From TrEMBL:
Keywords: Pyridoxal phosphate. Belongs to the DegT/DnrJ/EryC1 family. This is 8-amino-3,8-dideoxy-alpha-D-manno-octulosonate transaminase. It comes from the Bacteria.
Length: 398
């Protein structure tokens, strides 16, 4: 998946444009910048590739989620439904706007189960946040129906899924708001960076203002700009945007390479009847950044991942035991270890995460192994890896 694997002349050229002008700031300095507006250009490129009216670049994926929630006016005591399997950033963003993360079970898609979502809705629910973990999506059509029925916002955390699609729409563009991350390990990278995409003009206006101290970006004189709302600084720099501009041009090539490598691995593992695969919803196309499969039991999955690591099969993850991506090891959330406390609304709204029953998620994630698909592998290397993985899995099963 990582764009950093194929980093080179195109990125260097874009960055040098910025270094030559010396304007590292995305706004203002019109006279000095020799016509270079890397952040604006990357926003235009994202709008085109994602088929949306608006893209707002920000400093990270976490910032994108925070800005998306803020521009949808999600705040004190509002509930946001998200899956037990995600990166910690998803709930960090929710907490940072004073809202309550409500974790619900995943299904065989490894992301939000629509039935579990509907059950979790209360009169405080404001947002449903599917997280397209490891490059594939939830059943988005039923989630959209649920959101429309209850008047909720559908916010896609597409940080790991850029380049995938659903019903012909790029992931991130299907809901009311979509978020991407361009951190160093994502499919395409800016070093650090993120984006909010939307077709909603009002959300976009507020995202643009909120991410730059509430400035309205009207008129030529930065110092005379109005600030209609209180904001924050979530700006991306021109240097980071320049890297992203080179990378987004390569996105479709990256996806094609991932698809080739993914397909070789999948075709090999398909020969093993006991192995099943993560369900990709009908009309969904993943971005092939990971191959995620299930073993018949948790014990078998544990034995397999151990055999992989002892026999040189790197880049595979057993998320069930992972500190960052699965609720079991989120002690900081369970113990509410906040540095500065929580508002009364937030404290009163928070569920007791230690008492929650996520045994259904455990049954899926406990049997899952996800293998990162690298861009740099040659076809021969992938074939050798596929054989090695198949043999090791068969050994555990026998
Ligand atoms: C990486 C990631 C984020 C956060 O992105 P950063 O750019 O690292 O802040 C959020 N959600 C998911 C699912 C991610 O994988």
């Amino acid at each position: 998946m990582p764009g950093f694997e194929l980093f080179g002349d195109k990125e260097r050229k874009q960055v040098n444009d910025v270094l030559d002008s010396g304007v590292l700031m995305r706004y203002g300095f019109d006279g000095m910048r020799n016509g270079h507006w890397k952040a604006k250009e990357l926003e235009k490129a994202l709008e085109k590739r994602m088929q949306v009216n608006h893209a707002q670049l920000v400093s990270s994926g976490t910032a994108a989620l925070t800005v998306a929630l803020a521009c949808a006016k999600v705040g004190a005591g509002d509930e946001v439904i998200l899956p037990t399997f995600t990166f910690v950033a998803s709930f960090e963003a929710v907490l940072s706007v004073g809202a309550v993360p409500i974790l619900v079970d995943v299904d065989d898609t490894l992301t939000l189960d629509p039935i579990a979502v509907e059950k979790a809705i209360t009169n405080k629910t404001k947002v449903v946040m599917p997280v397209h973990m490891c490059g594939s999506m939830a059943d988005l059509a039923p989630l959209k129906v649920i959101c429309e029925k209850h008047g909720l916002i559908l916010l896609e955390d597409a940080c790991q899924a850029i380049g995938g699609s659903y019903e012909g729409k790029p992931l991130g563009s299907y809901g009311d708001l979509g978020c991407f991350s361009f951190d160093y390990v994502k499919t395409i990278t800016c070093g650090e960076g993120g984006a909010v995409i939307t077709n909603n003009q009002e959300f976009y206006k507020l995202a643009d203002q909120y991410s730059d101290h509430g400035h309205d970006h009207i008129g030529k004189d930065r110092g005379a700009e109005g600030h209609p709302i209180l904001g924050y600084n979530y700006r991306i720099s021109e240097l980071h945007a320049a890297v992203g501009l080179a990378q987004i041009e390569r996105l479709d090539d990256f996806i094609a390479t991932q698809k080739r490598n993914y397909t070789i691995l999948k075709e090999a593992l398909e020969q093993i009847p006991e192995v099943s695969f993560r369900r990709v919803p009908k009309n969904g196309v993943e971005n092939y950044s990971f191959l995620s499969f299930f073993l018949p039991t948790e014990e078998m999955a544990r034995k397999t991942i151990k055999a992989f690591s002892e026999n040189g099969v790197d880049a595979c993850f057993y998320w069930f035991n992972n500190n960052w991506h699965y609720y079991r090891k989120w002690e900081h959330l369970k113990d509410l270890n906040s540095l500065n406390g929580f508002s009364k609304e937030l404290r009163e709204g928070l569920p007791n995460y230690n008492m929650s029953d996520f045994s259904i998620s455990d049954q899926w994630v406990g049997r899952n192994i996800s293998c990162l698909i690298k861009l740099g592998w040659s076809e021969d290397e992938v074939i050798a890896r596929a054989n090695n993985m198949s043999n090791l899995i068969k050994k555990q099963l026998s």
